[in-house]
């Protein structure tokens, strides 16, 4: 027995296995397939749950999202723990625990497999782990059985066997012995005893595996090593009478003392000279990487079910570590297999062509001996003097035998050296790194194997027909006498009429001609003769009623190979079509023909090449070959398939299957089983090829399988290129599809339902309802009742789609008080939406509810979000979608568009009522739960659904559902409105909240969050008219307007070192201030701090004014130094790009694109062109302040007059007349602002109104502000008026009500000389005469 095992060693081996399985999807798929076959089929519910667990775990392995992985793992673990332990669930749990880094639990789950089914575990699931981990403990058992086998063979004469009978020499010498010679010398008793020993060996091995599993579990449980756990005693033999197993301690210790220190182990049921290539050395821990050369072990189950009485054979092979394969013409490989395994491996080999390329490569890398073991009887028949079949049998010619495998060629290839080998054997030789011919040792110029040697293959097939006794041993048909395929003499058909001698003679003559044609096809070396033979055979087939005998005659491998050689060599289109026709007819009737064709890769490649080169009938033959999806994709046949689908079927031969049907079925297979990106590419190719109408015709096909395949193709096309949906809806006959539903499988039924659901996503509501009526009313069965029954048994993630379609069909009539279909559909949708154990079903349910609004683009995309944004005032997304869809807005279609819009509104109203009225608003609770989900996809769909349904509440009858919506969702929407960063998300939340402001209880709930809501509404008021309306509602409904406005001081900066702050302006995230010492400072706000990022002093005197033209990102400055400068605004500084000499002091500079206006030292206003010219306007007035808006210059003068000058025409209009000085004191207009068609002017409050408001259109005064302050500067926003006073305070007035709402204190005695608002009107910046810059935020 091996030394004690540690838990670390166990975890190392189990973790290596789980890590490799997790990293290789193909390996996982193969292992799951093997384990799935072991599941009991009686409980379909358990099978579904386990399959769902497997799919969920696969999603966890493949996803890149940590959240999706954790949720999938939790769901899979819950599913697996809810069912009894099986091999399948234990395997899934081992992967699941490995994914969670719970390696000890993973090891326990993996050991469950070795305990439950040791044979399966060591042969199919984890053979490497068994060899490296278990087998080292079982070496004494292996040696014991080997000795027993030696004793059985001890009676055989060493002379006859051809090797020394001394045991030690048998161990140490390498002698190659033919397995068939060994079997031929055995007696019947020895053969039976060997078989019995094999069975005992398998069962003893199983029991020892279970013992070791228990031992390993104890070791894993002893993590801290506190207990000494000894390895268990091994079982060495089975006691027959009681079916118990006997422990032999002495034998075990004896084996430990024998020289097994070299680390090699022998399989006791094979020859003594056999060694494993992958062995352990006592002096080194490395292992040979060569593949094992011993035959694969036959499972105990196969041995027990074996019908034949043949015994196993073995051939010894000298296998030194590091040696290469030395080939000879005979006796150089080990072969052993049962007849049943022969048949299984032969079938697997024939089908290997259609497995993925990666799988083929892996299979080819297995030992070539495993391949050759598929038919060992061939060698037995050749070597034995009295073969089992009775009578003498001619041995095959030496040229028919592969020098590597010693078997008759199946797929011979002749290398450039002239030597011929079995394709798979020589491929294995090359894959092992060899680049020489095994026999001649000549270097091969190319390792690419040539095509099959068809001449040799045909001769072999001919020889096999003449020696049926030889071939019958490994034939699928155990009785060659009754199988016409293997009869060497062609049968004589009975007369067509017992009384007609003429008919009998005619038939005999026809058969003779057919026999002659077949002979020419198979044996002639002249291509033209073989082509004529094909045409003659096709003529026989078309004209005569071919019986089974004729069919069997043409289905023989030699004949089929002859047809294939014609396909390779002929260029005559008629001959090629005839050949394909015959192969299709034969293949559709006899599966052995297909097996013959799929045996050689190049045969299939030839057929595909002919099809792609224009032999369109070959598509039928390709379909009959049943290629895998991956093979079809690699064949790149989509374009050729579409050519067949679009071609008129009149020009094709009448075959067992029409080429179009075969093309539809193949295309459906490709689109139904491929990966997402491949499906997308192929579906777009199909749609762009204008083949949709032709595929739609297949919906009416007689064969249900073709109809279902067409449904799958059209579904993928609609999902990838939705614009073909209109063509399908217009042309499709849906009744045959509905009839296919009853006989389809569950997967096909869901495909049909998905097809209907996609089909009714048309951008015309009236057309949608017409299609729904067809689905509802046509067909032999009630569609709604059928959907209801299917809904009750559908998978969880399929239920929302089924329920959505059922709900739409039920809504075709006015919603009634009771409808079993509607109730069941609604219960299903809500149940799926609330079931967090199935995230995919939750998302599908939420998306289904969104789509039920019924508005779609021409490509089938839901317009729910875009239409809601349009209602909120953000209609850009909606307009963009309409432009993409190229919907016409011409006057000729206005009436039709109006009708469609009315139909859409009516559908939306009815659907919303059905959804919200179910169980008094139960859906709102489910949506509220979805809004708390961390899954972004689920959250988005629930948010959209909830917004839509709440928005519809005001137009629906109030049956108490508004209260349910308010309780479930109002606080959630307030929270989202406050926290939303995205403008569209905030607008949608606002749209939902607007439904509550007309409800007294809802408005009361909103009041407690008034300030936060108002802030969000102000942010949206520029882009959403709905925000303005809501602000009006809140303003009118609030008694104290002061509560609506509040400004919080952000920062105050002292820059008195630069003198007074004479001008200030905001642009994006920057603030620019002009100072009396000629300095311009650039500030940026970060949090509650103003950072000075740039300071420049290029003006020599005070900077009196700053202005910005946003279009050009230019800053303009005017100064008392008689210059105006233009600055480029950079990210961290400003740069002077132009200096203009103004020839006068510049006060109150205002700018447009091409001109600047300013107040000079004297009277009037100067207009300066940036090109150099200037002129004086309004020379009779001394102007105090200016405003320039849309080409109109507004002047506030010292005499309290206000004028408007049209700069284009020079026209001057008086808005307010001047007044004489009162008591010698002038009353100038101190500040002037124009905003939204209103002129705001400030002066001394001699008449009680410091600020007057004028209409810019008719110059009438429309209001005034009764402030007593001396207002020096003004700033106006869309809601508020800011007045900066001489006393250092800022009053804030409501623009609409003209009442004061707030007063800000600067905290200094300095005058407020300038003010500016940022672009969002959220921040007010003030400059004072004592050199301070202050900022307040509207909060």
Automatic annotation (TrEMBL):
Composition bias type Low complexity, residue spans: 319-339
Gene Ontology biological process terms in this record: protein ubiquitination
Keyword Transferase: yes
All residue ranges annotated as the U-box domain in the record: 395-470
Record-linked InterPro entries: ARM-like, ARM-type_fold, ARM_LIN, ARM_LIN_2nd, E3_ubiquitin-ligase_LIN, LIN_N, RING-Ubox_PUB, Ubox_domain
Enzyme Commission number(s): 2.3.2.27
Gene3D superfamilies: Leucine-rich Repeat Variant, YVTN repeat-like/Quinoprotein amine dehydrogenase, Zinc/RING finger domain, C3HC4 (zinc finger)
This protein's UniProt keywords: Transferase, WD repeat
UniProt pathway annotation: Protein modification; protein ubiquitination
Renumbered residue ranges of the record's region Disordered: 319-394
TM region positions: none
A Pfam family the protein falls into: ARM_LIN_C
PANTHER family assigned to the protein according to its UniProt record, in alphabetical order: RING-TYPE E3 UBIQUITIN TRANSFERASE
The protein's name in its UniProt record: RING-type E3 ubiquitin transferase
Organismal lineage: Eukaryota, Viridiplantae, Streptophyta, Embryophyta, Tracheophyta
């Amino acid at each position: 027995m091996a030394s004690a095992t540690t838990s670390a060693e166990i975890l190392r081996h189990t973790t290596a296995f789980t890590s490799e399985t997790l990293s290789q999807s193909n390996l996982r798929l193969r292992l799951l397939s093997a384990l799935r076959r072991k599941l009991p089929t009686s409980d379909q519910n358990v099978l579904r749950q386990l399959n769902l667990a497997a799919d969920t775990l696969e999603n966890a392995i493949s996803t890149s999202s940590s959240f999706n992985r954790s949720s999938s793992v939790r769901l899979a673990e819950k599913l697996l723990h809810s069912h009894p332990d099986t091999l399948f669930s234990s395997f899934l749990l081992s992967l699941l625990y490995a994914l969670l880094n719970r390696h000890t639990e993973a090891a326990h789950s993996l050991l469950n497999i070795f305990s439950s089914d040791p044979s399966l575990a060591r042969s199919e699931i984890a053979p490497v782990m068994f060899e490296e981990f278990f087998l080292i403990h079982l070496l004494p058992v292996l040696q014991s059985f080997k000795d027993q086998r030696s004793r059985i063979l001890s009676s055989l004469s060493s002379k006859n066997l051809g090797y020394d009978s001394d045991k030690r020499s048998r161990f140490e010498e390498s002698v190659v012995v033919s397995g068939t010679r060994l079997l031929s010398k055995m007696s019947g008793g020895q053969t039976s005893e060997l078989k019995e020993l094999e069975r005992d060996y398998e069962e003893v091995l199983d029991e020892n595996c279970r013992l070791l599993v228990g031992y390993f579990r104890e070791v894993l449980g002893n993590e801290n090593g506190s207990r000494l756990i000894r390895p268990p005693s091994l079982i060495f033999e089975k006691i027959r009478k009681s079916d118990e197993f006997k422990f032999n301690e002495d034998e075990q210790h004896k084996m430990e003392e024998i020289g097994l220190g070299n680390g090699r182990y022998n399989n006791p049921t094979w020859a003594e000279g056999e060694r494993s290539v992958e062995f352990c050395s006592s002096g080194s821990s490395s292992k040979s990487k060569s593949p094992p050369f011993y035959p694969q072990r036959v499972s105990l189950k196969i041995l027990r079910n074996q019908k034949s009485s043949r015994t196993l054979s073995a051939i010894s092979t000298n296998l030194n570590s590091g040696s290469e394969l030395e080939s000879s013409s005979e006796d150089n490989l080990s072969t052993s297999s049962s007849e049943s395994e022969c048949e299984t491996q032969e079938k697997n080999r024939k089908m290997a062509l259609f497995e993925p390329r990666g799988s083929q490569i892996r299979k080819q890398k297995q030992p070539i001996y495993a391949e050759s073991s598929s038919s060992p009887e061939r060698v037995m028949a050749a070597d034995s003097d009295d073969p089992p079949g009775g009578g003498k049998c001619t041995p095959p010619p030496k040229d028919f035998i592969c020098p590597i495998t010693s078997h008759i060629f199946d797929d011979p290839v002749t290398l450039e050296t002239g030597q011929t080998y079995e394709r798979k054997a020589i491929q294995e030789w090359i894959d092992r790194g060899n680049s020489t011919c095994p026999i001649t040792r000549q270097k091969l110029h190319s390792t690419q194997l040539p095509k099959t040697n068809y001449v040799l293959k045909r001769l072999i097939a001919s020889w096999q027909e003449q020696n049926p006794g030889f071939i019958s041993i490994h034939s699928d048909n155990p009785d060659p006498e009754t199988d016409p395929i293997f009869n060497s003499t062609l049968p004589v058909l009975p007369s067509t009429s017992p009384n007609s001698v003429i008919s009998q003679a005619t038939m005999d003559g026809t058969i003779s001609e057919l026999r002659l044609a077949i002979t020419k096809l198979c044996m002639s070396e002249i291509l033209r003769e073989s082509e004529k033979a094909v045409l003659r055979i096709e003529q026989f087939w078309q004209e005569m009623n071919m019986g089974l005998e004729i069919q069997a005659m043409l289905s023989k491998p030699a004949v089929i190979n002859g047809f294939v050689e014609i396909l390779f060599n002929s260029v005559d289109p008629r001959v090629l079509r005839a050949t394909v026709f015959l192969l299709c007819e034969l293949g559709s009737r006899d599966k052995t023909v297909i097996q013959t064709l799929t045996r050689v890769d190049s045969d299939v490649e030839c057929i595909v090449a002919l099809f792609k080169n224009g032999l369109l009938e070959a598509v039928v033959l390709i379909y009959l070959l049943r290629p895998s999806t991956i093979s079809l994709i690699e064949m790149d046949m989509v374009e050729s398939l579409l050519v067949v689908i679009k071609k008129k079927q009149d020009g094709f031969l009448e075959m067992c299957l029409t080429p179009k049907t075969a093309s539809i079925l193949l295309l459906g297979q490709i689109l139904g089983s491929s990966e997402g990106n491949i499906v997308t590419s192929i579906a777009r190719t199909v749609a762009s090829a204008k083949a949709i109408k032709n595929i739609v015709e297949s919906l009416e096909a007689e064969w249900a399988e073709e109809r279902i395949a067409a449904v799958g193709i059209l579904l993928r096309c609609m999902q990838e290129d939705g614009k073909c949906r209109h063509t399908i809806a217009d042309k499709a006959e849906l009744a045959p599809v509905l009839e296919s539903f009853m006989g389809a499988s569950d997967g096909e039924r869901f495909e049909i339902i998905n097809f209907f659901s996609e089909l009714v996503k048309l951008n015309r509501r009236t057309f949608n309802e017409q299609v729904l009526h067809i689905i509802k009313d046509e067909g032999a069965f009630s569609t709604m009742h059928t959907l209801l029954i299917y809904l009750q048994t559908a998978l969880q993630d399929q239920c929302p789609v089924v329920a959505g379609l059922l709900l739409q069909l039920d809504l075709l009539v006015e919603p009634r008080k009771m409808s079993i279909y509607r109730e069941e559909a609604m219960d299903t949708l809500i149940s799926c939406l609330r079931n967090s154990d199935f995230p995919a079903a939750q998302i599908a349910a939420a998306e289904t509810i969104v789509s039920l609004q019924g508005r779609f683009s021409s490509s089938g995309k839901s317009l729910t979000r875009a239409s809601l944004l349009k209602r909120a005032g953000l209609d850009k997304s909606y307009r963009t979608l309409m432009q993409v869809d190229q919907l016409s807005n011409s006057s000729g279609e206005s009436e039709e568009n109006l009708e469609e819009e009315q139909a859409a509104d009516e559908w939306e109203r009815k659907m919303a009522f059905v959804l919200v009225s179910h169980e008094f608003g139960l859906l709102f609770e489910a949506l509220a739960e979805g809004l708390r989900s961390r899954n972004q996809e689920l959250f988005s769909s629930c948010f959209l659904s909830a917004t839509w349904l709440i928005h519809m509440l005001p137009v629906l009858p109030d049956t108490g559902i508004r209260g349910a919506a308010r309780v479930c969702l109002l606080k959630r929407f307030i929270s989202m409105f406050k926290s939303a960063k995205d403008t569209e998300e905030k607008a949608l939340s606002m749209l939902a909240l607007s439904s509550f402001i007309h409800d007294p209880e809802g408005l009361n709930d909103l009041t407690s969050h008034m300030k936060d809501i108002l802030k969000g509404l102000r942010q949206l008021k520029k882009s959403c008219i709905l925000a303005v309306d809501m602000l009006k509602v809140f303003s009118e409904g609030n008694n104290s307007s002061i509560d609506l406005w509040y400004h919080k001081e952000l920062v105050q900066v002292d820059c008195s070192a630069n003198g007074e702050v004479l001008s200030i302006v905001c642009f994006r995230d920057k603030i620019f201030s002009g100072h009396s010492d000629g300095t311009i400072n650039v500030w940026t706000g970060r949090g509650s701090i103003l950072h000075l990022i740039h300071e420049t002093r290029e003006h020599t005197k005070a900077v009196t004014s700053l202005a910005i033209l946003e279009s050009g990102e230019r800053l303009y400055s005017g100064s008392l130094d008689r210059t105006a400068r233009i600055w480029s605004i950079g990210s961290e500084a400003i740069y002077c790009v132009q200096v203009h000499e103004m020839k006068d002091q510049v006060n109150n500079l205002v700018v447009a694109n091409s001109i600047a206006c300013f107040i000079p030292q004297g009277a009037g206003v100067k207009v300066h062109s940036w090109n150099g010219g200037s002129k004086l306007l309004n020379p009779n007035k001394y102007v105090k302040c200016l405003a320039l808006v849309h080409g109109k210059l507004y002047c506030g003068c010292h005499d309290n007059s206000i004028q408007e000058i049209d700069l284009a025409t020079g026209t001057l209009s008086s808005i307010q007349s001047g007044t004489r000085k009162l008591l010698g004191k002038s009353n100038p207009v101190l500040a002037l602002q124009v905003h939204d068609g209103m002129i705001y002017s400030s002066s001394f409050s001699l008449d009680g109104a410091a600020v007057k408001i004028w209409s810019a259109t008719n110059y009438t005064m429309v209001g005034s502000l009764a402030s007593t302050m001396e207002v020096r500067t003004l700033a106006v926003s869309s809601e508020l008026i800011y007045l900066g006073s001489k006393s250092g305070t800022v009053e804030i007035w409501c623009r609409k009500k003209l009442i004061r709402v707030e007063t800000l204190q600067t905290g200094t005695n300095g005058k407020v000389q300038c003010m500016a608002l940022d672009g969002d009107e959220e921040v007010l910046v003030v400059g004072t005469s004592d050199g301070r810059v202050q900022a307040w935020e509207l909060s």
